[in-house]
Design goal:
The complex is a heterodimer.
Chain A lengths: L1 H5 L7 H10 L8 H20 L10 E4 L7 E8 L5 E11 L5 E13 L6 E7 L2 E7 L3 E7 L6 E7 L4 E6 L6 E6 L3 E6 L3 E7 L14 E4 L5 E6 L2 E6 L8 E5 L12 E6 L7 E6 L2 E6 L8 E4 L6 E7 L8 E7 L5 E7 L7 E2 L4 E2 L15 H11 L3 E11 L2 E10 L4 E7 L25 H6 L16 E4 L47 H19 L21 H5 L5 H17 L29 H11 L2 H9 L3 H28 L7 H18 L9 H8 L14 H9 L11 H5 L1 H6 L4 H15 L8 H11 L3 H12 L6 H9 L6 H10 L8 H19 L2
Antiparallel strand pairs in A: 1-2, 2-3, 3-4, 5-6, 6-7, 7-8, 9-10, 10-11, 11-12, 13-14, 14-15, 15-16, 17-18, 18-19, 19-20, 21-22, 22-23, 23-24, 23-25, 26-27, 27-28, 28-29
Chain B lengths: L25 H4 L12 H18 L3 H11 L8 H21 L5 H14 L4 H14 L3 H12 L5 H5 L1 H28 L7 H22 L6 H13 L3 H13 L7 H13 L4 H14 L5 H11 L3 H14 L9 H16 L5 H9 L5 H5 L2 H10 L1 H15 L4 H12 L3 H12 L1 H16 L1
Helix pairs in contact in B: 2-3, 3-4, 4-5, 5-6, 6-7, 6-9, 7-9, 9-10, 9-11, 10-11, 11-12, 12-13, 13-14, 14-15, 15-16, 15-17, 16-17, 17-21, 18-24, 20-21, 20-22, 21-22, 21-23, 21-24
Protein name (chain B): TATA box-binding protein-associated factor RNA polymerase I subunit A isoform B
GO biological process, one term (chain B): transcription by RNA polymerase I
């Protein structure tokens, strides 16, 4: 007891205390070493289970079509209830929605059976017109028979002493199942004759592996079972189980396995090809042919983050359509769709690219906006590990749909519909983010298929997903067009499980219909309210717990805690406020806590002159921001230098002021920037080069830039903030009321000098800008051409003229056509026209304006080409 | 030992209580553990995330998106981690090829260019890249280009790397041989179309060159244990054309019976067809099929095997024939094969007509199947379906059901009833036949009963 007192954690955890009470009589008698060993073993076991839990292998969800494969109605088998211990047989009709995709509608309430354990696996097969269902929980396995139009009848239950790991139903003989347990035993279970043990091997087959997991499936021969453990698969003859068995698959070099690869799930693909088996490992999926054992007919690395433990196969049609295989993972809910063909006459091969389907948690983004609390619940709820996957194919008119059902460990059931798209036609699947009605084309899987060798029967089933989920009263199809799901839980949140009218609650994704239909929205709200209510009243142990901590009582005495320091009234008030806020989960606003704290008084300002010493000056300088200046000043020794520095600073200040002004006005310039201007030149010249003889060397320095500017990365390109840029921008704003000065002012050499324009360029610039000093409304006809010839050489003039003419509607000018073709056929004529007119040009477009328009043209073009 | 206790399954009424929402316990309490390696740098993390995006895009068939991410993933080549630097080129090659294969705007030139770059990027799998590229070219019908690439790849030498990729090199050579064979067979077709006189010596010489090149390479790969069906078939075709039958037989025998090779049913079939073409004795044919029967009792050749055995005069072989045909029908794939069923019906009729001399054979075969064949083949449901879908099948099966299971069998009764209703004459004969041989049924059941009692 003394020791116990030393253990601090016991004071807080009642569970630990309870354990202590139970074990204190004998715990101390155990040798510590042994205890530690056992504890370690148990921890390792638990850890392994956390990493990968193989109990739900196979999945607890099954679909039984009534009236043959491809029928539009069927029975969905799934567990429900808080402990997932109720088996439900829910009749479902697949009804076409508005867009032709099938949606499940629940018919009536499900037939339910209460079992004595959590349902781990449901497997079902149709034999001879009736369906046989095997249900596995940890220590019990049961068999049901379901005949069309009748209530499901329970046939038999067996109890095992070690947990069962597998239960599969024979596709050949009615009422036959195979059963494996963790003790390594395989049984053939016939409902009529009982159990027959075929073999029992605690050791694994090909090499040692610790896992007690065993699996068995049926094969093409009704009397031969496949028997799998983590190291491989063998064939076991029921009639002579003790005789040598045939190896079907061995983890190792023959199959091209990786290091550490283990069998995770075998599946008999009897419906697709009588001799084929699918074998999934953590890394790959293999298709193995019984007739040709050990060498897989197909191997594909599935790249799933956790091993797939659910698989479902839908046979393709006999006309060479591919078989669809779904692989599902538990923890991450990943869902992968593969298509494969071949087996008998042609080689087995994958068709098209594998495709990932939506997980349950993907639906969260389509739910309406919620408070963070609700979002958190929903996130946890929807992010639960998956518990089963199944699917069915249906057809409605020309549209083929594939319905994929997913079950989560919380018992929520979701579906998504994939639409088949014909390889030839361009109407493709709709991506999940697209509106279903318009069905914009994403990629068709068919495109993917074309590159594949072999039978190009691409049946890519295009997919799209809309998922919705249903609740236990399944929800039906409802008007949820949307893409994703809503979820419901199974125990009807809305609480009418007995209501036969299915309540669907789905909800629509924001991008489809902005507002879900009122009925659905109401359903959803009701469900959400129930969920949140239930969450709040969640049993204590289920709530997220804070890690065990020391009680504060041990840190403070009661008296210390009782003392309230400071202002009693104010503090009590504040405490009340805080408590209320916590109760309501609201916000505490600062002012709610009583008087607002008075703002801190500003310290009295420091007078810099009062502190003449070096340090203070330096501090003052750095506070003001001119520390480097101050430093230079300190460095400068002679008086003359200081004077010069002062002059320079003055000059700089003036220039700064000027620049500030022009950058201000620059912000008013339109989308034309200096950069685009100059690069336009490059484009213009490139056009002319492309359309006619080599250009003569341009005369002016500005134009000498142009040909060298190939796109954005030309080294000689002026930076946008440079004075040159400013001036050109200004010049292009004839009507800008914010201009600091008139154009003639701008052209004064003083002004230019102030802006840092080098002397040799001033003349060019002045010439250039002088265009704008003329009134743009009535330009003398000869000015543009003369300017142009001076500016750009002869080659440029016809170009701009032809452009102008093309703007004016004369399409037959050959030059403009060639330009159009060099642009890839995009003529932005309307845009440049409007620009031209807005710039004040009539039919006689001045040169600069036509340049502007070409500028916009070129700019657009570049933007397009950026793809 | 597991103890099993049978219990009736409990059943409760549903909808008794208004169920409340049950809530998951898992997510809050258990955070799934993640195994950790050495700490990653920011660069690695970024690239890892990028790779995840690429994977995501690939799996959703968003090739354009994948291509955009791929551009930035290329930087992984500059990683400082040794292990990554080794694997990165391969990842880029694989992802890039995948994207180019599927992207709607990609074309053959781009893929060729990409492949060339990839070959230089990673010499460690140079030949693999070549092979993949060659398959792509072949799938697009560019046989000549593929051949050029094969020739180039074959002569590739890069120090130790060549030795390390010996297996791939063998494959390259083998595929080159296969293309040589392809060219050869085209020439052969041309030759067969033309008359002998018009076929010049130079063409013949050319053809012979192809033959030599193909034979050398194909022979090489066949020696290695493995599954080489196309190569073996081509090689045997070449040998047969030039009359080297001994070599062909040796190759096929080796391929079928060498225990180092994986058990390949096709190998037996090739050998059988070869021997049949050569007009070999029935004995050798039977022995080949006998071995095939042991490994794959459900093989398509089993019907042929049965026909051969049936004609034999030896009782032992005819006994084996019955076994073969029974065994074929054990398999789900043969369940509705009319030919197999009529073979079995014919055989049993023959036995019955033959004064029941070999009725004990039937008894023996039936004995091991009597507990599951009725449910597997002769259920009432199947009778209805077979009658609807295939009347001939229903007839043959009804005959067998009548003999093996007696005239009270549901299958027999249903089909007979339907047949008589439709006024089909042969069902009347069927009825008479079964009635006549009712004693045989009694003997079969009696024997099997006694044997079970034993």
């Amino acid at each position: 007891m003394d020791a116990r007192r030393g253990c601090r954690q016991l004071w807080v955890s009642s569970r630990l205390r309870g354990f202590c009470h139970l074990s204190q009589a004998w715990l101390w008698e155990l040798p510590l070493g042994m205890l530690g060993e056992r504890l370690h073993e148990e921890l390792a076991l638990q850890w392994d289970q956390l990493l990968f839990d193989d109990a739900p292998t196979g999945g607890a969800l099954a679909w039984l079509p009534t009236g043959g494969i491809g029928a539009s109605r069927g029975c969905l088998l799934h567990p429900a209830g808080p402990a997932m211990d109720q088996l439900c047989f829910q009749d479902v009709v697949l009804a076409p929605g508005e867009d032709g995709a099938l949606r499940p509608c629940a018919q009536g309430s499900p037939a339910q059976f209460k079992l004595s354990g959590r349902v781990r696996q449901v497997s079902a097969t149709q034999v001879d017109g009736a369906a046989f269902v095997g249900v596995r929980s940890d220590y019990h396995c049961g068999a049901w028979r379901l005949q069309p139009g009748a209530v499901p009848t329970p046939l038999q239950v067996v109890r095992t002493t070690s947990p069962a790991s597998c239960l599969t139903v024979s596709p050949h003989l009615p009422g036959e199942l195979s059963l494996c347990t963790h003790s390594g035993a395989v049984y053939l279970w016939s409902v009529e004759t009982g159990l027959q043990r075929l073999c029992q091997e605690p050791e694994t087959m090909f090499f040692r592996d610790a896992s007690p997991w065993r699996w068995s499936e049926f094969t093409a021969h009704p009397r031969v079972l496949s028997y799998a453990d983590r190291t491989g698969v063998q064939c076991l003859d029921v009639r002579a189980p003790t005789q040598a068995r045939r190896d079907l698959f061995k983890v190792g070099a023959e199959a091209g396995c990786q290091r550490g690869e283990r069998v995770v799930l075998p599946l008999y693909l009897g419906q697709a090809h009588p001799a084929q088996h699918l074998i999934a490992t953590q890394f790959s999926v293999y298709v193995v042919d019984e007739r040709f054992p050990l060498v897989p007919a197909l191997r594909w690395e599935h790249m799933m983050t956790v091993p797939p433990i659910f698989a479902h196969m839908m046979p393709g049609s006999p006309r060479g359509r591919s078989h669809k295989v779904l692989l599902g993972a538990q923890r991450t809910q990943e869902l992968m769709l593969l298509q494969c063909t071949g087996g008998s006459t042609s080689a087995c091969q994958l068709v098209g690219a594998p495709r990932r389907l939506h997980t349950i948690a993907d639906g969260l983004q389509y739910l309406p906006a919620m408070t963070p609390h609700q979002l958190d619940w929903l996130h946890q709820r929807l992010g639960m590990p998956a518990a089963g996957v199944t699917a069915t194919l249906g057809r409605c008119g020309p549209l083929e749909s594939m319905l994929v059902f997913q079950l989560s460990e919380a018992g929520d059931l979701f579906y998504q519909t994939l639409l088949h798209s014909q390889p030839a036609d361009s109407s493709p699947e709709r991506g999940h983010a697209d509106e279903p009605s318009t069905s914009p084309s994403l990629q068709t899987p068919a495109q993917a298929v074309q590159h594949l060798p072999g039978p190009g029967t691409s049946c890519g089933s295009g997919t799209e997903g809309e998922e919705e989920d249903r609740m236990e009263t399944y929800l039906s199809g409802l008007e949820v067009l949307v893409n994703e799901d809503s979820e419901d839980e199974d125990s009807g949140s809305a609480g009418q499980p007995t209501d036969p009218g299915a309540q669907g609650q789905g909800r629509t994704s924001p991008n489809q219909t902005p507002a879900p239909s009122p009925a659905i929205a109401a359903q959803y709200r009701r469900w959400l309210a129930t969920l949140s209510h239930a969450w709040k009243h969640l049993a204590e142990p289920a709530k997220p717990r804070v890690p065990l901590t020391l009680s504060q009582r041990r840190l403070f005495t009661r008296r210390e805690l009782g003392q309230v320091p400071g202002d009693r009234v104010l503090h009590q008030q504040a405490r009340r406020q805080l408590r209320r806020a916590m109760r309501e989960r609201g916000l505490v606003v600062g002012c709610a806590l009583g008087s607002e704290p008075s703002p801190l008084p500003l310290p009295c300002p420091v007078e810099p002159q009062a502190w003449p010493d070096d340090l203070s000056e330096r501090l003052t300088a750095s506070w003001v921001g001119g520390w480097s200046n101050w430093w230079e000043e300190q460095q400068g020794r002679s008086q003359a230098r200081q004077a010069r520095v002062r002059a320079l600073r003055e000059q700089r200040r003036r220039r700064k002021r000027a620049r500030g002004l022009c950058s201000l006005s620059g912000s008013f310039s339109s989308s034309l920037t200096c950069q685009s201007d100059l690069s336009d030149f490059s484009d213009v010249s490139a056009w002319s080069v492309g359309s006619r003889a080599p250009t003569p060397v341009p005369a002016s320095p500005q134009h000498s830039l142009a040909p060298s500017l190939s796109g954005q990365d030309a080294p000689a390109e002026p930076w946008p903030g440079s004075p040159l840029a400013c001036s050109t921008q200004l010049s292009q704003e004839p009507g800008g009321s914010q201009d600091p000065g008139t154009p003639s002012q701008l052209l004064s050499s003083q002004m230019l000098r102030l802006r840092g324009v080098p002397r040799e360029r001033r003349k060019t610039l002045r010439d250039y800008l002088s265009i704008f000093t003329e009134s743009p409304v009535e330009p003398p006809p000869e000015v543009p051409s003369s300017q142009a010839s001076r500016l750009g050489g002869d080659h440029r003039v016809p170009l701009s003229q032809s452009q102008a003419s093309s703007l004016g509607g004369e399409r037959h000018v050959p030059l403009s056509q060639s330009q159009a073709s060099s642009l890839g056929g995009e003529r932005h004529v309307p845009l440049s026209q409007s620009q031209a007119s807005s710039l004040g040009g009539g039919q006689h477009v001045p040169l600069s304006q036509s340049q502007a328009s070409t500028g916009s043209q070129a700019k657009r073009k570049r933007a397009r080409m950026g793809f | 030992m597991d103890g099993f206790v049978e219990q009736p399954a409990p059943r409760e009424e549903w909808g008794s209580l208004a169920p409340s929402i049950h809530l998951p316990l898992l997510p809050c309490l258990l955070h799934h553990p993640v195994t950790r390696g050495p700490k990653e740098t920011e660069f690695q993390k970024t690239k890892e995330a990028c790779l995840n995006y690429i994977q995501d895009a690939l799996l959703q068939n968003q090739w354009q998106r994948a291509a955009e991410f791929m551009i930035s993933y290329l930087e992984i080549l500059e990683t400082s981690t040794v292990s990554k630097r080794k694997t990165a080129p391969e990842a880029i090659w694989r992802i890039g090829t995948e994207i180019l294969l599927h992207h709607s705007k990609s074309n053959i030139e781009e893929l060729n260019y990409f492949t060339e770059r990839m070959k230089n990027l990673g010499v460690k799998y140079y030949l693999k890249v070549c092979l993949e590229h060659i398959f792509y070219l072949l799938c697009n019908g560019l046989i000549d280009e593929a051949y050029q690439n094969l020739t180039l790849a074959e002569s590739w030498r890069y120090g130790e790397q060549t030795a390390a990729q010996n297996d791939e090199l063998k494959l390259i050579q083998a595929y080159k041989g296969l293309l040589d064979y392809y060219n050869w067979s085209k020439k052969r077709e041309a030759m067969l179309e033309l008359d002998e006189e018009n076929f010049t010596d130079s063409s013949e010489q050319e053809m012979h060159n192809f033959f030599r090149q193909a034979a050398v390479n194909l022979k090489e790969i066949i020696k290695i244990p493995g599954v080489w069906d196309p190569f073996v078939v081509s090689y045997v075709d070449l040998l047969e054309f030039y009359g080297d039958f001994d070599e062909a037989r040796e190759v096929l025998t080796e391929y079928a019976y060498n225990s180092k090779f994986p058990p390949n049913p096709n190998a037996h079939a090739y050998l059988y067809h070869f021997l049949k073409r050569r007009g070999e004795s029935k004995k050798s044919l039977v022995s080949v099929l006998k071995i095939l029967h042991k490994t794959v009792p459900s093989h398509e050749l089993m019907l042929e095997f049965y026909t051969m055995l049936k004609k034999s005069k030896k009782d032992k072989k005819r006994r084996l024939g019955l076994e073969v045909i029974f065994e074929v029908l054990d398999f789900a794939g043969w369940k509705e094969n009319v030919k197999a069923w009529s073979c079995l019906a014919e055989q049993i009729k023959q036995i019955l007509d033959n004064s029941n001399k070999h009725l004990d054979w039937v008894k023996e075969e039936w004995n091991s199947r009597k507990d599951w064949w009725p449910a597997f083949h002769f259920s009432h449901y199947l009778a209805k379906r077979n009658w609807q879908e295939n009347e001939k099948l229903a007839y043959e099966k009804a005959l067998l059901a009548g003999i093996l299971l007696g005239k009270d069998c549901k299958y027999y009764k249903y089909v007979l009833h339907q047949g008589c209703k439709a006024k089909k004459k042969r069902f009347q004969t069927l009825k008479k036949f079964v009635k006549k041989h009712n004693s045989a049924y009694l003997r079969i059941t009696a024997c099997s009963d006694s044997s079970t009692h034993l």
